[in-house]
Amino acid sequence: MKYICLVYQEEDCLSTLPPDERASWVSDVNSYVESLQESGHFIDAAPLQSPHSATTLRLRQGQVLISDGPYAETREQIGGYYLIEATDLNDAIRVASKMPQMRTGTIEVRPLRTPSSQSTA
Question: By CB distance 3.0 to 4.6 Å, which of 9, 10, 48, 82 could disulfide with 5?
């Protein structure tokens, strides 16, 4: 089963780290990705650009409304994602609980819908 692990962080959390801690953090993330690949859990992962680069679309009364910036106005924003393969939610949680990003943010684990579950909301 496929799960997306959304990484939420404060936008400036990494830029405020001293250079040696930031380098260590990046190294830990790269090592984690390698371990996901070796274990067969890895499908894809990517960081996102700043929330300020986001464009939000809404459809209201037949009109598309376009706003600069992210939808949610919170301290933590989505900073990236991992797409993983796991046997079940417990396996996905076990895999996500080792993400280095947990030290500075929050990880949301959510199963992807399969074609057979598309009709349910």
Answer: 82
